[in-house]
Every structure is written in structure tokens, then in C-alpha cells.
Design a protein that fits this description.
The protein is α/β, with parallel strands linked by helices. Helix content is 41%, strand content 16%. It is built from 13 helices and eleven strands. The strands form two sheets. Strands 2, 3, 4, 5, 6, 7, 8, 10 and 11 form a nine-stranded mixed sheet that branches. Helix 3 crosses helix 4. The radius of gyration is 22 Å and the shape is globular. The termini are far apart. The N terminus is likely disordered.
């Protein structure tokens, strides 16, 4: 046994160490959240419906009589980006629809002959077809990454179908022509995976290592998001879709003008190349720790001619904003509904 004197000394050292750790913890504490996502919550059953070229897998929540809200995920994510957002909106009385985009989850092409096309206008048209199939005339549409771009396109080209818009990183409508314009080296560096996908080595690498690739993107795009392994694995299953690699590779190659689209969509792409102004009520969001390529809010504020506001969500929030800050994302949807 220690002597009383030695025991007191050891107790003093231990106490000082504990105090130091506490002080360090306070210094590193985030002002709003721990940014820790766990996979405890889940959706109800996945439903399927034929819509346009697809049999779409989706989940829904809330009363069928509520104002429709369509939540769109990005790459490399899936419907679980909204697993905490949907119940908040459902409780507020909204009818929430969260679909898997083409190439993800349980969404499948109806025909093996259909071109596995990932160009942006087609993804937006998929959602219009889904709304038709579900008999939804008008909805609040919200998204991030591919989902934000898709929501922007719907708001621009089919404003009569969009009651309001919530878009992470704002105005993301582009064209093949704009994709040819070189960026400063720092910005080009952020798009490393786009150039990787432009090669056959990149296609083979993504096919072989798609889960490792997706996890790396999660870490780079949301450097302060401390997600659990089970959270990632739950979403990673969506990448086992047989069309996933084809859709992802075509999407990024099309943006660089390295892959052709389908001529039947040329008119839509022509309209998008004019960078149309969005007139529907809009709230744009940005996380203060978004590590993915994204434009500065000042560069796109004038692209929204209707009621508009921009919000920066603080506390170490990265690219997957709805999953990292679900309360703020849900609030933006409710607020845009009241604009």
C-alpha cells in the first residue's frame, strides 16, 4: 500500500490531470453540436412505383393530406441523409417523400435497353415523373449535392411543380459548356475525383473500391462529422445497385463533355445552359465546414428572383448537411413554406 503522503501526492497529480483534460475539452467544444451521427433511427418500409423510365424505390412519412415535401439525396449518399429530417417534418404535418435516385438503392430501370444516363436534366425529369406517378401536383423540393442540383433544375424549368426550394450550396445549375471553363488550381484540386472518373482506370477503381471511395468522400466533404461505421454501412448498401457505377461515371464525364447525352433532352439542356433565374421562394444553406467543392453564396444570390434568404449552419457542419444538422434543414423547409 502507498503511504498517506504518497497517496496524497498521487491524488493531487490525478486531480490536476483531470482538470487539464476538462479544460481542454471545453476549449475544443463545439458551440452547437457534437456532430455525432448514430444509426439508431430508421425509415418505414421501402415502397416501389413505376415512374417514367424507372421503378423508383422511396419512403414516405407524415399524413397523405399534408403539403408534399420531396427530399433528394446526393452522391455518394442515399435516402438516409434524411432519416432525422423526415420525422420532424411528418410531425409538423408534411407529407414527406424520399426517393432513391437512379442508380441507388432499390430504384431500377424498367428496361435493360434504356441508356444509363446520368446527365442532370434527366435526374430532374425522373422526379417530375415520380410526382406524376404519385399524383403530386406541387411540392416543396429540397436537396444537397446531386439532389440540390436536381431541385434547382425543377424549380427553374418546372416552377409550377415547385412550391418552394431548399438548396444546399445554392445555385448548382450548369452545362457542358460551362464545364469546359478552367478553374484556379485550388478549385481544380477539389475536383480530383471528376478527373479520375474520366479515365478507364477511374471507372475500374470505383467499381472495385466503391465503398472505400464513398467513405473517403464522406471524410473529405465533412471533415468534422464523426459518423459511426454502422451509419456508413447502412448507406453503402445503396451503392450495390447494378446501375450505380454507370450512372456515376456518366454523370461526371458528361459534365466535362467527355460523354454524350441523349438528343431527346437537348432542349432541356439548352435552357439550362442559359442559367435560368429561379423565381420560386428559396432558402439556400451552407455548412461552415463543407469540404466539398461549392460556390460562394455571393456568386449566386442574384439567381433567385423570388423571396430568398441564405443561411450558414455553424458548428462544424459539412457537405451532408441534412444528416449532420437535421433540425436546421427541417426548419428551412418549414420556413420556406411560409415565405
Amino acid at each position: 500500500m502507498l503511504s498517506n503522503e504518497k497517496g496524497r501526492d498521487q491524488l493531487l497529480v490525478t486531480t490536476i490531470a483531470v482538470i487539464a483534460l476538462c479544460v481542454a475539452g471545453l476549449a475544443d467544444a463545439k458551440p452547437r453540436r457534437q456532430n455525432l451521427t448514430t444509426p439508431d433511427r430508421s425509415f418505414g418500409p421501402i415502397q416501389q412505383i413505376d415512374a417514367g423510365l424507372l421503378n423508383v424505390g422511396y419512403v414516405e412519412a407524415g399524413p397523405a393530406t399534408g403539403t408534399p415535401v420531396i427530399l433528394l439525396h446526393g452522391w455518394p449518399y442515399d435516402i438516409y441523409s434524411y432519416v432525422e429530417v423526415a420525422p420532424v417534418l411528418a410531425k409538423a404535418g408534411y407529407h414527406v417523400i424520399v426517393p432513391y435516385l437512379r442508380g441507388y438503392g432499390t430504384t431500377r430501370f424498367l428496361s435493360t435497353d434504356t441508356i444509363r444516363n446520368g446527365q442532370p436534366s434527366v435526374l430532374a425529369l425522373d422526379i417530375i415523373h415520380l410526382m406524376d406517378a404519385l399524383k403530386i401536383d406541387k411540392a416543396i423540393i429540397a436537396g444537397f449535392d446531386w439532389g440540390a442540383r436536381t431541385a434547382d433544375i425543377i424549380a427553374a424549368l418546372w416552377p409550377d411543380r415547385c412550391k418552394g426550394l431548399v438548396s444546399v450550396s445554392g445555385y448548382l445549375i450548369g452545362s457542358q459548356e460551362s464545364g469546359k471553363m478552367p478553374l484556379p488550381p485550388v478549385a481544380e484540386h477539389q475536383w480530383w475525383y471528376q478527373y479520375y472518373f474520366a479515365t478507364e482506370r477511374g471507372r475500374a477503381g470505383y467499381e472495385k473500391y466503391r465503398q472505400d471511395f464513398a467513405k473517403l468522400i464522406w471524410q473529405l466533404a465533412s471533415p468534422k462529422w464523426k459518423f459511426e461505421e454502422a451509419t456508413f454501412e447502412r448507406t453503402a448498401k445503396s451503392f450495390d445497385n447494378p446501375d450505380h457505377v454507370d450512372i456515376v461515371i456518366h454523370n461526371y464525364r458528361w459534365r466535362l463533355g467527355l460523354a454524350e447525352g441523349e438528343s431527346k433532352y437537348d432542349e432541356l439542356e439548352k435552357r439550362l445552359a442559359e442559367a435560368p433565374v429561379i423565381a420560386v421562394p428559396t432558402i439556400t444553406l451552407e455548412g461552415d465546414a463543407n469540404g466539398a467543392p461549392h460556390p460562394d453564396a455571393s456568386s449566386y444570390s442574384k439567381k433567385f428572383s423570388g423571396k430568398y434568404s441564405h443561411r450558414v449552419i455553424r458548428g462544424g457542419v459539412g457537405h451532408n448537411l441534412p444528416q449532420e444538422a437535421p433540425e436546421e434543414f427541417a426548419k428551412a423547409i418549414i420556413d420556406v413554406d411560409h415565405l
